[in-house]
Amino acid sequence: MNAIRQRLLLGLLVGLSLVLAASGFTAYRQARSETNALFDYQLQQTALALRDQNLLALAMGGEGDNAGDLLVQIWDRSRGLLYVSQRERELPFSTRPGFADLDWRNQAWRLFALHAGDRIVQVAQPLSVRLRMSADIALRNLAPFLLLLPGMGLVVWFGVGAGLRPLHRLAEAIQRRRPDALEPVAPERLPAEIVPLVQALNDLLARLARALDNQRRFVADAAHELRTPLTAVRLQADLARRATDPESRNGALRDLGAGLDRAAHLVEQLLVMARLDAEPASRSEAVDLLALAKAVVAEQAAIADAAGLDLGLASAEPATVEGDPGELRALLDNLVDNALRYTPRGGRIDVGIQRSAPETLLWVRDTGPGIPPAERERVFDRFYRGADAKVAGSGLGLAIANRIALRHGARIELGAPESGSGLLATARFPRIETANRPG
Question: pLDDT tens across 275-304, in order?
Answer without folding.
Answer: 776 666 666 788 899 999 999 999 889 889
